[in-house]
Write a structure and sequence with these properties.
The chain is an alpha/beta fold. It is built from eight helices and 14 strands.
Length: about 220
Amino acid sequence: MKVLIVEDEPSLREIIRKALQNERLVVEEAADFATACEKTGLYDYECILLDIMLPDGNGLELLQRLKKEGKRDRVIIISAKDSIEDKVKGLDLGADDYLAKPFHIAELTARVKSLIRRNNNGSNAVTLGNVTLDNTTFRVEAGGTPIELNRKEFDILRYFMHRPNHMISKETLAEAVWGDNIDQADNFDFIYAQIKNLRKKLQQAGATIEIKAVYGFGYKLVEL
C-alpha cells in the first residue's frame, strides 16, 4: 500500500516517512506542487498527505485537480493553516480528513491506517479462497496454516489480493510495491524471483489461490 507525502519541510517529511515505513507502507515524497502534480498524474496512492502551503502552489488546487480528473486517491490535509475556512474548503473539495500542525505522529499514523482500512470496506483483513491476509498483524494463513513471507512477498500478495482476477503488469506491480524509484531498474527479473518463491509457499501451504503468469503482460491472482 502506497502513500504520498506532499510537504515542503524536509525534517517533517522524514519523520512522517519513517513512521509510515514502520507500518510497512510504501512511501513516496513530493517537496513542491509541481512534483506532486507529476507524481499524482503518473501513479495512484492509497493515501495522500497534503500540505496546503507549498512553495510553488496551493495544495487545495492539487486536491481540486485530483477530483476533477476522477482520481480516487484518499487525501488527508496536513497544514499549519487551521482556519475554519480552509478546513471547510478542503473537505468540500473532497478531502477525507484534516489534521492541523503541529500534530502527534502517532495520531497521523492512526488516521492514515484508518483511512486505508475504510477504503478496504472497514476490514483489516482480506480473504480469497482459503487464504486470509491481515494488514495489521502482517499474518497470512491458508486454511488456518500460517505462511511465513518476507516483506516483499507479503506486499506482493497484499497487492494481488486486493485486486483478484485483475491482470497486473510487471511495471505496475513493481511501482506499487517498490515505489517510483523502480523507474531506474534495468529489468524486472527480481519480480520473477519474488513471485516464484511466493507461489511455492502458497502451494506448500495448500492455498486455493494461485498467481498465474499472463504471457507477454504480467500476472493475475485467481482461485483454484
